[in-house]
Predict the structure of DUF2621 domain-containing protein.
Amino acid sequence: MLDGWFLWFIIFWVAFLVFSFAVGGYFMFRKFLKRLPKKDGKSIMDWEEYYVNKTRHLWSENQKALLEELVSPVPELFRDVARHKIAGKIGELALNEKAEKITEDLVIRGYITATPKRDHKFLRKRLAEKNIDVAPYEQFF
């Protein structure tokens, strides 16, 4: 017969593994949904890649550095994904406005619109740390 502590040990590991698989499956499923083509035949990730590639030549070193500073609070594991998503949104804004170069205004607007609503509190804090006035951007929050 199993000891009481050994039984609890097995129950703990079973629960831990189920939880781990559920978390991993959730993130894999989200990635899968982003890869599914929409009505226009391109997925969300395809459009992000398109906007990044179309506007790559519009970025100056200062704007790249600003984007890098803005995404620095994101954990290292997710930083590349966040940077790419924000750069895609900035590229979309730049193409829609027919911008000749990426400006600080475009970077901030893209940063705000690409960030989920639940993170806007941290976003405001980060912009305040960088001494960037958010008053002109209130409509994007």
